[in-house]
Amino acid sequence: MKIVATIEARLNSKRLPKKHLYKINGKLIINLLIERLKKIKNLSKIIISTTNNNTDDELVKIAKKNRIGFYRGSEENVLERVTKSAKKYSADAILQISGDCPLIDYSLVNHQIEMFKINNPDVSTPYWLNFPGGVCAPIIKVSALQKSLRNSKTTSDFEHVTNYIFNNQKKFKILYFLAPDSYKHPNLEFILDTYDDFLFLKKIMKFDIQNKFTTTQLIDICKKNKILRKRKIIRKNKDKKKFIMNSL
Fold this sequence. Notes:
There is one protein chain. This protein has 248 residues and is of the alpha/beta class. It has helices spanning 29-37, 57-65, 78-88, 106-119, 142-151, 155-159, 163-167, 195-205, 215-224; strands at 3-8, 23-24, 27-28, 45-51, 69-73, 93-98, 123-126, 139-141, 174-177. Helix 2 (57-65) links the parallel strand 4 and strand 5 (69-73). The longest helix has 14 residues, at 106-119. The radius of gyration is 17 Å and the shape is globular.
């Protein structure tokens, strides 16, 4: 099975423009994410899925410099852009990762990919209110993306890749995976959305110059140094009956 990582990124964000080009420890934030994705064993390809806007030319240059793939498409129809990104590189499934999540846990995703291959769902996703935000991401079959694209009708469905899937869970085989106690910290997030988020991530990363800390290490650093930052948005699981418990 060919699984590719699609990094959704654009530089004209309203809350924090050009946030992917901010630097931590002398490295672009998007490069920190790419470094971590390259540590995931079972990924066939990494792609930056960006827009046709001229402002995003810089992201294409970054993709080329890192020797990873890229795709350019609609800014508003993110579902279509990501689906076409996957098709361009002949993927069977994608790791759907936001460019706002530079501290993705490569060890956690390695485990998730193994569970995905064993259980063969349409979607594998962390159980919400379990893991800290930003350390893991959904794995989605391209066939599920295509089904979503065919049936989506609302603006929200097109703007958010998994919106149709989670609003129509009976139409998909979904594998939720749960966090062991050492990984549980649902009120904490490592997501770049605002300048305050950037300052928070910068404080954490001064302890991780090599950019290799896993979720438990990140949680420990936050607790020991009292630099916790609460999650801004809490989402609820639509269907608590449809999950499979897996341990790490």
